[in-house]
Amino acid sequence: MGKHIKRKSRPGVLIFVFMLWVVLAILTVQVWRTPLVEEETVKENSVILLSNYDYVAEVEPCTLYPEGGVQKASGVIFPLITEKLTVSVETKLSAEKPVSAQGSYRLILQLTAEDLWTKDFPLAAEKSFIVQGQSGNIIKEEVVLDLEEIKEFIAQVEKETDNSRRTYFIAVKPELVGTLVYNQQMLPLQEENFLQFSYEPKEIKLEGEQDFFTDLTFEKKIKKQQSFVFAGKSFSLVKARRLFTGLALLFLVWWV
After folding, report:
1. Prediction pTM value
2. Rounded to whole angstroms, how far apart are CA atoms 128 and 123?
């Protein structure tokens, strides 16, 4: 049959038929290599943890603050005239769709001498929380940092170790343990952000930000039927497999 075609057909027609068969063969291989079902990840719900750290200083009467008392701290804090820092910590949950959250937290004071030592002190007793719905407080706490106690602790460590740093770091950190539940899915609740100051005998400065947000997303996997697009038209993959395989075999039989 092939010889008969070659005798009676023009070379151009034979080349065209052969190229068409090659294209069909390539398309056939492509549709058979494409999975019938594709697994796709879609977002079901988005939850944001918004954390805010605010603080005020309790100062002695002095030239800068003649009346002393509680002052809104901004810029440099002077330890020589400041007795305490009061830090307010608030972490709120905000969700697109209602969720359930529960767990516990405690706030710690962390002192750090970089590359030398780190020491944690509890600032308040551990507390539990439960949130149902689209919004609610996870953490709402106010703690006091006694600067004199911090100064005495650092001085004692320097004396005992005969080692010191020019700058130390003070951090107020939440230790949060909890779970977030939506539609029978569960995510761990954690808070890795914190408020940090650099500490020197004559000045304390805020390091970093006071406002943070953490995005938690509930996702699910769905199975989606694959389609095949050819000549601007979309075909189901099953139909495309049948079509291109049939045409490729038809041309092959005709050629032989």
Report:
1. 0.71
2. 15
Q: b/e for 30-45, b at 16 or more Cβ within 10 A? A: ebeeeeeeeeeeeeeb
Q: What is the pLDDT of residues 45-86, one digit of tens each?
A: 999 999 999 999 999 999 988 888 888 877 899 999 999 999
Question: How many CB atoms lie under 10 A from the CB of residue 19?
Answer: 10
Q: What percent of the chain has pLDDT over 70?
A: 71
SS (H, E, C) the chain: CHHHHHHHCCHHHHHHHHHHHHHHHHHHHHHHHCCCEEEEEEEEEEEEEEEEEEEEEEECCCCCCCCCEEEECCCCECCCCEEEEEEEEEEEEEEEEEEEEEEEEEEEEEEEECCCEEEEEECCCCEEEEEEEEEEEEEEEEEEEEHHHHHHHHHHHHHHHCCCCCCEEEEEEEEEEEEEEECCEEEEECCCCCEEEEEECCEEEEECCCEEEEEEEEEEEEEEECEEEECCEEEEHHHHHHHHHHHHHHHHHHHC
- How many CA atoms, within 13 angstroms, populate the side-chain half-sphere of residue 108? 16
Determine whether 197 is exposed, middle or buried from the number of CB atoms within 10 Å of its CB (0-12, 13-18, 19+): buried
Give per-residue pLDDT as tens, 200-256: 999 999 999 999 999 999 888 776 666 655 655 666 656 666 666 666 666 555 555
> Kindly report the CA angle at 113 between 116 and 210, in degrees rounded to 5?
140
Q: Is the pLDDT of residue 26 over 50?
A: yes
Token pair recorded at residue 11? 């070379």
